[in-house]
Amino acid sequence: MKKSFLLVTTFAVLIASSLAFTNAEEVRYKNLKVLPKKINKEEMDVVMKHFTASLGVKCNHCHVYNQEAKAMDFASDANEHKLTAREMMKMTQKLNKKYFEWKGDWTAVKDKLEVTCYTCHGGKKEPSSWPPAPQRPGGPTAPATTAPATQQ
Questions:
Q1: For residues 96 and 114, is the Cβ–Cβ distance under 8 A?
Q2: What distance in Å separates the CA atoms of residue 25 and residue 23, rounded to the nearest whole number?
Q3: Of the residues 13, 93, 103, 108, which has the maximum number of CB atoms within 10 A of its CB?
Q4: pLDDT tens-digit map of 19-38
Q5: Burial of 36 (0-12, 13-18, 19+ CB in 10 A)
Q6: Digit-coded pLDDT (tens) for 86-115
Q7: For residues 52 and 85, what is the distance between their CA atoms, to the nearest angstrom?
Q8: Whole-number average pLDDT of the chain
């Protein structure tokens, strides 16, 4: 019993110490054509979360699932939405450079106005070409106004 405990404890200490001294490898993303080649995981997460929130979609809207690997294949260009997303990114880059002095930092949070995915999509898959319908005073659940009651 003591030998088993000692062996398990030694093994656990070895694993923990090897993990502690291992340098975290820098993530290298494949097939980046618009985003910076040296983007790190934190920056990529910020960009992807912006896309999903701005379009109200999940990863599989632009990325494909690899059945053999049983995992998402983020590098694949098999999904046409990913190709469209690249074109939209190029379009917003041009607009932001021309009108908002954008410096090319996809992950910077800025206080100044910029064109983003949300500008047109507003949280929906398809961008709207019409403004939302006007809401009644009191919000969308307010009852329709009726004629005032007459006194008897």
A1: yes
A2: 6
A3: 93
A4: 455 445 567 899 999 999 98
A5: middle
A6: 999 999 989 988 888 777 776 665 556 689
A7: 12
A8: 80
CB environment 37-71: b (16+ within 10 A), e (fewer): eebeeebbeebeeebeebbebeeeebbbeeeeeee
Average pLDDT over residues 14-20: 51
SS3 8: helix
For residue 81 the two structure tokens come to: 């939405």
**Tokens 């109200």 belong to which residue?**
56
Q: What DSSP assignment string belongs to 52-121?
A: HHHHT--GGGTSEEETTTTEEETT---SHHHHHHHHHHHHHHHHHHHHH---S-TT---SS----HHHHH
Query: 0.90 exceeded by the pTM?
Result: no
Question: Could you say which DSSP state residue 146 is in?
Answer: -
SS (H, E, C) 25-60: CCCCCCCCCCCCCCCCHHHHHHHHHHHHHHHCCCHH
Q: Does the CA dihedral 100-103-106-107 come out positive or negative?
A: negative
- Confidence (pLDDT) at 62: 96
